[in-house]
Structure formats: C-alpha cells, structure tokens
Amino acid sequence: MSTNSPATPAATHADDILRLVDPAGTLNEQAAAGMLDVTDELVRALYRDMVLGRRFDQEAYSLQRQGELGLWLMSLGQEAAQAGSIRALRADDRVFPSYREHVAALCRGISPAELLSQWRGASHGSWDPERYHFHIYSLVLATQTLHAVGYAMGVRYDAGDSVVFTYFGDGASSQGDANEALNWAAVTSAPIVFFCQNNGWAISTPASKQYAGPLSERAKGFGLDAVSVDGNDVLAVYAATQRMVERVRTGGAPGFIEAHTYRMSGHSTSDDPGRYRDSAELARWEAHDPVERVRLLLTARGWADEDYFAAVASDAEELAAQTRQECRAIAEPSLSDTFRNTLCEETEALRREREGFETFEESFL
Amino acid sequence: MTSTAAAGSARKDAQDKGSTTTLGRALNEGLRQAMRDDDRVVLLGEDIASLGGVFRVTDGLAVEFGDRVVDTPLAESGIIGTAIGLALRGYRPVCEIQFDGFVYPAFDQIVSQLAKMRARSRGLLRLPVTIRIPVGGGIGAVEHHSESNEAYFCHTAGLRVVACGHPQDAYDMLRAAIACDDPVIFYEPKRRYWDRAEVDLGRPVDGDTVGRARILLEGADVTVVAYGPTVAVALSAAEVAAAEGRSLEVLDLRSLSPLDTTELCRSASKTGRVVVVHEAPVNVGLGAEIAATVMEHCFYNLEAPVERVGGYNVPYPPARAEGDYLPDLDRVLDAVDRVCAP
C-alpha cells in the first residue's frame, strides 16, 4: 500500500516545488520577496477563507450523514489550493471548476444554498455563472477544461483582458479531454490557466497509477508554461497563481499550475478510504495541514491575536448555522420546470408531455 | 409554387447547370450569409480554413472571415467542448465534424455537456451551437465514412436534430439552425452534396424550416416519410409509382427531433398507409418512433401496418456491398406494394 501512496511535498521534487511557508509556519522571506508582498491583511484574509471553507465542508458532511444531502464531495485538506488560487484572480476572471471547488466557490460569493442544492437533489447546478464568473460544476471529469479553452478563445476574439481559470485533478488528467484542452490552449494561445489540484487520489486510485511523468512536465510538453507548487501552502499558491495569471493576461503562453495537496477525506460520503489507504499516510499529511501553518505564521508574526482567531471561529460557526438553515430551506425541484428548461422554448412535443404528466399528477389530488 | 411543382422544377433545374446551385454550395452560401449577418458566428472544424473542408462546404470563407474560421486540432471532443465555451462567451459556433463516423469521440461533449447544460443551469444558459455532420452512404467510401447515427442524438433531450434533403433547404435550414438558440445537430446528406437546384439566396431566416416537416409531393395512396439522403429516393419512387397508377405523398421530415407530429399525422390520416425510409438501421431507428407515433394518433385511419425501409442491423458494409444495404427505389416500392396489398 505504501508504495502507491502519494508522497508529501517535502519528500518529492522538493527543489522544484514552490513553497513559501513550511508546515511549522515559517515564512521563507527570501523566496517570498521576489514574488509577493506578504502583508498581514493578506495572510489574515486567506486564513479566514480557509477556516470558513473548512467549516462549511464539515457542515455539509454532517448534513449528508443526517440525510439532508444525498451526497457530498469533501474538500477537506484542499483549502489552501482553492483559496490561494481564487483570491489571486480578478473578479471577472472566468472560472470553470470541477466539482470539489467549494472553498473557491464560497470565496466568489456563491451561497451555501446554491452550493448544496445539487447535492440535496434539488438541481444539477443552481447558481448563475454570469453573476459569479464561476461556471456550474462539471461531474464528467475534465470536460470543463475544454469549455474553459473555448471561453478563452472568445475572450481573445473580444480582445478582453480577463483570464480563464479551470480546476481539475490528478484523476481527470488522464481523460482525453484534459489532454485535448492542454494541446488546444497551447496551439491557440488562449488566455487560460489550468490549475491541477493533485490531491493524490482518484477515489481509490493513487496518483502513481494515474501517470508516470510529472503532470507539470506533461504540460510543458504541450507547450504550456508550467509550475509546481506546494498546494497546502496558501501563500505559495497565491503567489504562483498571481504570477501565472498576470503573465497570461499580458499575452504570455497559457499556464499550468500543479498544486500538490491531499484529499484528507474520502472521495465522497459514499467512499471508504480505509479499504485502500492506511492511516499513517493521513497522519503524515495532517502534519502538512494547510490551515494550521498559517495560524502558526500569524501567531509568530503577531499579525493576529486570540481575539482575531476567536472572531474567525465565530464567523465559521455562523456560516455553519446559516448553511444548515439554508440547506433545509432549499425549494423542492419541479419536473414541470425541467420540461420548460430543456430547450430555449418549450416545443409542442415537450408541452404535450408536460401537460400529460401534470394531468396525471392532478388526477391524484 | 406548389410543392409538386417545386419538386418538378428542381429536377428540371438539375439539367440546367448554368442557373443552379449544388447542395454543398448552398450550404456554403448559407454559412457565408450567417457570418455576414452576425459577427458572433464562428466556424470550427478540421481542414475547414485553407482547404475549405473535405467537401468544400466552407470553401473561401476563411478568405472573407479570417480567424472566424478555425482549423482546429484533430480532436472532435475538443471541437464540441470549445464550441460550448465559445457559446457561453456569447458566440454562435458552427462545428464541422468531418465524417459521420468521427462524431463518437465527441459523444460525451454533445450528449452530456451540450445537450444538458441549459437544463442543468435551470434555463439560465443558452448554447447556440450548430454541429454540421455529413451523413450517410452511397459514395463508395471506406468504413466510418457512411454512417447514419441520428437516432443517438434524437434520443437525447436538449438537442434539436435536423436533416436537409435538397439545396434550397440546405441554405434555409442551415441559416435557421445557426440562428436557433438551442444546440442543433445538422445532418448534410453527403451523397447529395452535388445535387443541383435553383436556390433563392435572398430568403429571410425562417425557423419553420428546422421545425416543420414539409410535403414535397402530394399524393393520395401512401405517405412516404423521408429525410436527408432518402428524400430523393422517395421522390424517385413516387415518380415510378405514379407511372404504375399509385399516388405517393412524399413527406420530408426536415426536423428529426422534435418530430413534427402534426404534419406527419395529417398525412398519415389522409393516406392511411405509411412507409418510412432512412439509411440508418431499422432496429431502434427513427422509423420506430414514427411508426409508434402514427399508431398512437392515427390508428383508426390506418389501412395497413407502417412499413420501415432502412439499413440492416449490421455494421455498415464495405463500399462494394453498400448498394444492397441502402434503401433504394426497389426496396421502397416493395414496401409500398406491401402496404397496398389487399
């Protein structure tokens, strides 16, 4: 089992992986100096994003266990990869997520109800992508990477200066669509950055069975500019993303960021990680916790005191309560609406089917 | 002009090449006009720019429209996937799939992404993507170049599926498909690319051309339902049948999904006999849906069971055997005989 286990960032490719804050909360001043203006406000804001995102995820997990959600895909452990990347984008940089980007979605202002609707079985996607510049989730792996490239081609046609940003994972990297997207982006010089959250596992399949050469190297082979980053180091993710996105915004080749992180939960609430990975691996990664190292940094620098941490914790509890409340208030879906939303205008055939369904339902009243 | 006269004049015009347009050229003009009318229309496909497509349907468009005609990497899923992204950005992509048998690598992007995205977004998103597919056999091609796969897409909610059968419809329907806010699978009968007829290039966009079936030839005894490449077969059958004293009505479906059940049932009720002709295998093909629809709505007006004439339930045969596979004049007339049997 251990031979397949994903190594922590410290143990592999250490020289190639950007890290600014180590697990003990020590900031590498020299490395940071060239990349990022590390301010106390920035670090506090990212810390808060991560704590809130984690608490939200925890509440959603509980809601699933209590029967309020049909399924939940946990984001535990990937807070730094998501908060660090989304916060480095401009608000109008269009995001094409996969399905685990809850922390990033919350950062964009998507509400708990909008995020939970899909998993409660009330919709297949409930937020307005235009409002948040954040597309609805894609459940078929890597399909969204091609949508992102097409959208970026449109940005290029419009001579726009926004950058398209797409999330996917180590498992999705094996899909044809991911590889078509990388190639297509490079060939068209579309303004896009691919962000791979390499969390080590695709349900039960370890990254070692997914690919043989580093994903960032593969991206370079396609002609993209690629970097690797410690995905559990929110400042490194933020710095790498900011640098890559701004380079693309000013006409650089499409970018690829591989964030080495770890899925600390199972794939979903239907998963049982005990069948395929040992607890020692999780323990190793817990020592690389993305939230804890920032708390240590804030404390060591005197950038946050106990009152601040208590206030963030309180906000997180408030979000959890709001999440629970909103979840139970999500409106039940209507099959009649689905008929109306299948095409832009309800066709005669759809109307006939809908009316037949409605007449049948009404016959029971 | 009556429908009968239109069909007759199309045949006459075919002999007068000077003033006629091929179906392929009509599509080309349709694309050109759509691109002139709306600068959000962009074309994506393999070999469509400098070559003009393997059937030359996009001939010359790259010269006029520059980077709005994109020679894509050779990746069908990528063509549809990026078209979806362009549509989300406000563009109206028109994709060319080089041959019918090459659409399968894009199946997920069409069926799970393109078709469902509007419903998934609860009606917020529009996906005005047109997917042009040369369809069917009869040109002596190698394998994967002669397939009729419309049933897969007709079975998918969220898509419109249409097939043009002659040059004027090719022009009108393509413009209407591009103007439509829904995803449209647009089938082009590849063995008819070189068919000629007079084409009015001045017609306004008419959504009915991709929504309504049309009677091409009025008749009293049997309704022959056809679309795409079999429209011409049906018209020929009608001509021969007429000489034998039988009056066939030829219904060109044009829209395969949704079906124009009103026109279909009106004709079926009138004649009481229906023969459906398509190149796709009869097994679970569109003809089954048509037969069921006719039975549900016209049962008491029918004089005979609906007959289906189409491909057999085998992989498309090698070119030298395709003549036995494709529904031709004789097979259609044989079916007509069966539905007319006392």
TrEMBL record, chain A:
Reaction(s) catalysed (UniProt annotation)? N(6)-[(R)-lipoyl]-L-lysyl-[protein] + 3-methyl-2-oxobutanoate + H(+) = N(6)-[(R)-S(8)-2-methylpropanoyldihydrolipoyl]-L-lysyl-[protein] + CO2
Q: Which cofactor does it need?
A: thiamine diphosphate
Q: Name one GO biological process term.
A: branched-chain amino acid catabolic process
Q: Please state the Enzyme Commission number of this protein.
A: 1.2.4.4
Q: Sorted alphabetically, which InterPro entries does this protein's record hold?
A: Alpha-ketoacid_DH_E1_comp, DH_E1, THDP-binding
Residues annotated as domain Dehydrogenase E1 component: 48-320
Per the record, the domain of life is Bacteria
Q: Which GO terms describe its molecular function?
A: branched-chain 2-oxo acid dehydrogenase activity; magnesium ion binding
Q: What does this protein do?
A: The branched-chain alpha-keto dehydrogenase complex catalyzes the overall conversion of alpha-keto acids to acyl-CoA and CO(2). It contains multiple copies of three enzymatic components: branched-chain alpha-keto acid decarboxylase (E1), lipoamide acyltransferase (E2) and lipoamide dehydrogenase (E3).
This chain's protein is named 2-oxoisovalerate dehydrogenase subunit alpha
- Give the originating organism: Streptomyces sporangiiformans
Automatic annotation (TrEMBL), chain B:
Q: Does the keyword Cell inner membrane apply?
A: no
Q: Provide the cofactor list for this protein.
A: thiamine diphosphate
Q: Which controlled-vocabulary keywords does the entry list?
A: Oxidoreductase, Thiamine pyrophosphate
Where the record annotates domain Transketolase-like pyrimidine-binding, the positions are: 21-195
Which Pfam families did the record assign? Transket_pyr (PF02779), Transketolase_C (PF02780)
- The answer to whether the entry has keyword Oxidoreductase is yes
- Sample GO molecular function, one term: oxidoreductase activity
Q: Where is this region: Disordered?
A: 1-23
For this protein, the record's PANTHER family field holds: PYRUVATE DEHYDROGENASE E1 COMPONENT BETA SUBUNIT (PTHR43257), PYRUVATE DEHYDROGENASE E1 COMPONENT SUBUNIT BETA (PTHR43257:SF2)
Official protein name in the record: Alpha-ketoacid dehydrogenase subunit beta
Q: What is the lineage of its organism?
A: Bacteria, Bacillati, Actinomycetota, Actinomycetes, Kitasatosporales
